Amino acid sequence: MSHPDDMHAADTGAPDRADRAADGDALPIEAQLDQARSESDEQRRKAESYLDLAQRAQADFLNYKRRMEQERERIVKDANADLLIQLLPVLDDLQRAVASVPSEFAGNPWTEGISLIGQKLGQTLDRQGLRHIGAEGEAFDPHVHEAVAYQEHPQYGEGQVAQVYRPGYRLNARILRPAQVVVARGDAPPAPVSHP
Predict the structure, then answer these.
(1) Which helix or strand (DSSP H or E) is residue 169 part of?
(2) Pick from 37, 143, 178, 193: most CB atoms within 10 A?
(3) If you write DSSP's letter for every residue of 69-118 in order, what string do you get?
(4) Which residues in the chain come in under a pLDDT of 70?
(5) What is the Cα–Cα distance from 31 to 90, expressed in whole angstroms?
(6) Shortest CA distance to 173 belongs to which of 88, 38, 93, 74?
(7) In the chain, what are the domains?
(8) Cα–Cα distance between 137 and 162 in angstroms, integer?
(9) How are beta strands 161-166 and 174-177 bridged, if at all?
(10) Which of 159, 156, 164 is CA-nearest to residue 183?
(11) Could you give the CA distance from residue 13 to residue 188 in angstroms, rounded to a whole number?
């Protein structure tokens, strides 16, 4: 049989071992929590990094897609412009032919048909964005006019378009062909320069 003092010693020793075991386990749990927090933070940083990369890739793709669409539109516009530039001499010839119909043929159905063809062609080109530039009386602008002559003109002042030799055309904002014009030179003598 065991002695009552031994029992007491055993009773008092047991809690000490349990406390030590609990304290010993508590340290690894705290270390495990710290490690888990550290791993969690690392995983969150990686996830944020991957999200950032994915968002950048998506933005780059959208920018690329937008640039490709703009490039495609530019290519189509340039192709239209090239075709219209080639058609302009034909349009000029047709307009000259209609304008120079002799008066004895003015009511002729054939000449009326040619005139209607010219009108339809003009309407079709208008729908494509082609605009006529160059008109008598407007101020000379080297961006839209090409001066072929410079002469005195009683009706127009210095620097005004006195005559349109060949009309110019604009496609949207692009000048396809400048208008060839005669620029008026005023008939008044130039003002003398006064020196102080």
Answers:
(1) strand 168-171
(2) 178
(3) HHHHHHHHHHHHHHHHHHHHHHHHHHHHHHHT--GGGTT-HHHHHHHHHH
(4) 1-27, 186-196
(5) 89
(6) 74
(7) 131-188 (2.30.22.10)
(8) 6
(9) unpaired
(10) 159
(11) 128
